[in-house]
Predict the 3D structure of the following.
Amino acid sequence: MNLKQSFLVAVLLGLMGLVAWEMYWRSKPDYYRANLEDDRYLWAEHRAKVESATEKDIVIIGSSRTGFDFNTHVWEETQGIKPINLSTNGKPPLVFFEDIVENTDFNGTLILGITPLLCFSPGVEQRNLEAKMWIDHYYDQTYAQKLGFWVSKPLERHLVMLTSSELKFYNDLDLKALVNTISIGERVPPAPKFLNFGYNDEDRNLIMFSSMVSNPEFAKKVQNAWNSFLPHIPDYEIIKDVIPPILKKYEVAAKKFKSRGGKIILVRHKAEDNWNKHTKRILPKTMVWDKFVEQMDCPAYHFEDYDFMSKYTLPDWSHMNAEDAKTYSKDLVNKLLKDNHLQKTN
C-alpha cells in the first residue's frame, strides 16, 4: 500500500512540475510560442506538394531572410495563389533548387531568395551537406517516422515546453540547450550564442518575436551573434576562386529549369549596413551579384534598386519584423504583377 501511495504521489508531483514548467514558458509569449518545429519533417510535408504542382504554382526557396521577409498568406491575398514555402533557416538554396530541377517535373515559377554570405562565401559546401540531409530525409523517411511526426503534431501545437530546433539555438528549451546556458569556468572559449528570435506557422512562414522590436537588449544579443563571425570572413581577393564554380551550379540548374518552361525570379532582400558592409567587402555586388544575375538570365530584384524593398529597419540587421514582412510581401507581389512576372488569379 505504501509503495502504491508513493507511486501516486510521485506521479502527481511530476505532473505538477510539468504544469508549472509549461505555465512558466507560456508567460513569455514574446520569446516562446507553441508551434510545429520547423524541421526536416515539416519541410518534407511541404516538399511533397511540389510533386503535383502545376505551371501556375509558385515555389519559394531561400534561407532565413526569405522565410522571415515573405508572408505567404499576404501573397495569396494579393495574387490569389499561395506559394509552396520551401525556404530553410540557416541553409543555402542551391541543393533544394537542384532537387526540384532534377527530381520533379515542376515548371511553374520559382522565387529564389539570395543571401550572398550564405550562398557564395566559404563554408557553403558544408551548409549544402546539411541541406542535403533534409532532401535525403524526404526520399528516405520511413512509415514509422511519418507516424511519429503525425503523433507529435498535437503536442507541439499546444505545449510551449517542446519548443526546440534542429539548428540548436542557445535559447531552445530542450535539455541540451538548457544545460548549455550553465557557465562552468572558462576552460574553453565561449561559443557564439545564436538565439532563436522567431517562430513559424504551419505554412512555414517565419514570424519574428515582438520582443525583437520592443526589447532592444534582446535584439542586441542577436546582433552580437552576427558580429561574432562576420568580421572574420576573408575578403573577396582571398576567396574569389571558390565563387565561379558555385555560380556555375546555379546557372546549370537554371538553364535546365527554364528549358522546360519554368520561370525564375531572383530576390536579394535588405540587410542593414552593419551586416551589408561585410557582404560588400567579401562579395562585392559588381563581382558577384551582377555576374550571378547575368549568368542566371532571369528577372532580379535587389533591395538597393527599389525603395519599397529598402525602407524598413531590420531589428537584427538581417530579417524583417512580422508587420513589415506583410507590407513588404504585398508590395513585392504587386511589383511582380506590374512587371508581368506573375499573373493575378482573383
Summary: The CA atoms of residues 236 and 282 lie 4 Å apart.
